[in-house]
Write a structure and sequence with these properties.
alpha+beta
Length: 137
């Protein structure tokens, strides 16, 4: 949204997930929530029509907000889902990036923004007794 406001017209987003949402797409378990106050965490949450349901927003409400924001501002059309950057090289002589994707495509750009969040990969549990663990009763 802000890149468009700055006059950038050619924008492409590579998203390895099949849907929008980043961390909030990958982490959809009961009780997931943000540990930062909603109004500080959510960009553009000051826009009309949005009001956090609680001080620390649930993952589901953040995901819903991201989808609504993306649809409202036509961001979804800029996203290549199920595709991620696997290599990025900067050409100093020509001042441009060359990005190779997981689908075998090559993109060239003047600006490159990395958005690889540390919480986008699941942490697989591994402890003794995992197979028989039933949870708290």
């Amino acid at each position: 949204i802000k890149l468009r406001a700055k006059g950038l017209k050619s924008i492409r987003i590579l998203e390895q997930a099949p849907e929008l949402g980043g961390t909030w797409y990958w982490n959809q378990y009961p009780g997931v929530a943000c540990d930062i106050e909603s109004l500080s965490y959510l960009p553009l949450s000051h826009l009309p029509g949005y009001s956090p349901e609680r001080y620390y927003s649930s993952g589901a409400s953040i995901l819903q907000f991201a989808k609504q924001l993306s649809e409202h501002h036509n961001i979804t059309e800029l996203i290549n889902f199920n595709e991620k950057a696997v290599e990025a090289k900067f050409d100093v002589e020509h001042s441009k990036w060359t990005v190779k994707s997981s689908k075998g495509f090559t993109y060239e750009c003047k600006y490159l923004i990395f958005g690889k969040g540390p919480l986008s990969s699941p942490n697989e549990l591994n402890f003794e007794g995992l197979e028989s663990f039933k949870g708290v009763s």
